[in-house]
Amino acid sequence: SSTPIGIHDISFATTSLVLDLGVIATRMGIDPQKYYSGIGQVEMSVPARDEDIVTLAANAALPIVERHGRDRIRTVIVATETGIDQSKAAAVYVHRLLGLGENCRAVEFKQACYSATAALQFAAAMVQRDPQQQVLVIATDVARYDLQSSGEPTQGAGAAAMLVAADPAIIALEPVTGLYTEDIMDFWRPNHRDTALVDGKTSIRAYLHAIEHAWQDAQRQGAPGFEQIDYFCYHQPFTVMAVKAHRHLVKIAAAAASSAQVDAVLEPSLIYNRQVGNSYTASMYIALVSLLDNVAQLDGKRIAFLSYGSGCVAEIFTGVVQPGYASHLRTAAHAAALQGRTAIDDADYLARHAQTQPTDAGAHPAPHETTGHFRYAGLSGNKRLYEATP
Ligand code: CAA
C-alpha cells in the first residue's frame, strides 16, 4: 500500500530524581570531565521509590491517549530490558493505568536496547494490515549497574511512547531496513540479578561492528545512501558512543565529513540523553525527541535511525519528517520533565541503589515520592500494585 505509516505522536517521561555525575566522580576520586566530556554525560535520572518501568511507561503515554483518544488503539507493546515480572507483561499494567479498552492486545518485547525498534516495525506492519488501527509502542527502562563498576556513570531511566498510525503527523517510516544479529556476550542480565553485567570495551566494539554490518545490509536492500540523510539518531548508552558510531559510519560510507560536521549533525539528538543517562530501549527514541524539540524546520528532512541492543541485534531504518510536524511536538512538557527533577546527594543515591526487592509475601508499601501521574504503590502477596497518583 502507498499509505504512509509512521509516528503520529511521540512523548517522553523520566523520573522525579536526578544525580549530577560529578557526585560519582568525587566519590571515585576522578576528574568529573571524564564523565562530562569523556563519555558525554552530565546527569542521570534516578527513580523514586514509587517509580519503575510501568509508571514511566504510563507517564510517557498518557498525553498521547489524552490527545488522540483510546478507541483506535487495539495493541499496546511495551519494550523493556528491565522487566518486573518473568511472566506477566508490563504492558498489561500500563493498559489498565491508561484506561485502554478491554478489546486490546498487550505484550512485552525484549532484546536489550533494541526491542523498541522491533516493536515499531511490527506496529507498522499491523497498521499496514488495517490502517484504521493505531498501535501504542512504549520503550521504558531503568539502567542499573553495580556501584564502582565501569557502567555506574552510564545508568539512567526514561520512557518514550509513540503512537504508530497511517498518515502520521510526525514521521513517515520508509520500508527498507538493514539488519544484523550475532550471538555475543557484551552486556546481559542473568535472571538472579537486578543489575546488568557488561564487558565495556567489548560492548563498544560490538556496537560498532553491528552498526557497520546493518548499514551494509541496508545499502544492499536499497536504503537511502549516506548523502541522502539529513540527521542521524543513534542508540545512546552514553552520548559520546553516538559520536564514535557516527565517525565510524562516515568512514565505512566513504563520506567526506569533517569532525565538526559530524558533531553538528548529531548534537541536537544528544541534549536530552546527556541529562537522562542511558534509558536502554528508550534512548534512541529520546534522541529523536531531542532532535525534534531542538532543531527548527525539519519539514521533509530524512532521519536515519541506528538501533543497537547488546547480545546482539542491530537495525537501521529511515523516516521522513512530515510537513507541519512542529505543531504536534511537546517541547515544553519535555523541558518541564527534565527541569522538574529533584537533585539528590550521594548518600541518598547510595541508599536507593542498595535497596533490594523484598522476596516474602508480606505487605511492603512504597512511600509516595513521585511527581508523576502514576505510582508503584508497593508489594503485597508478591503482587505489584500500581495506582494513579492521588
Ligand atoms: N577528561 C576528558 N576525557 C577523559 C578524561 C578526562 N579527565 N578521562 C578519561 N577521559 C576519556 C577517555 O579518554 C575515554 O575516551 P575515548 O574512549 O574517546 O578514548 C572516555 O573518557 C572514557 O574513558 P575510559 O574508556 O577509560 O572509561 P571506562 O573504561 O571507565 O568506561 C565504558 C567507559 C566502558 C563505556 C563504561 O562507561 C561502561 O562500561 N558503560 C556501560 C557499557 C556501555 O554503555 N557500552 C556501550 C555499548 S553497549 C550498548 O550500547 C548497549 C547498552 O545500552 C549498554
Automatic annotation (TrEMBL):
> What are the binding positions for (3S)-3-hydroxy-3-methylglutaryl-CoA in this chain?
31, 145, 244, 278
Q: What is this protein called?
A: Hydroxymethylglutaryl-CoA synthase
Taxonomic classification, please?
A: Bacteria, Pseudomonadati, Pseudomonadota, Betaproteobacteria, Burkholderiales
| Organism this protein belongs to | Lampropedia hyalina DSM 16112
The UniProt record lists the Hydroxymethylglutaryl-coenzyme A synthase C-terminal domain at 174-249, 255-326
Question: One Pfam match, by short name?
Answer: HMG_CoA_synt_N
Entry superkingdom = Bacteria
Decide whether keyword Transcription regulation is in the record.
no
InterPro entries with a match to the protein in the record: HMG_CoA_synt_C_dom, HMG_CoA_synth_N, HMG_CoA_synthase_prok, Thiolase-like
Catalytic residues, per the record, are 81, 113, 235
Residue ranges the record marks as coiled coil: none
Gene Ontology biological process terms from the UniProt entry: acetyl-CoA metabolic process
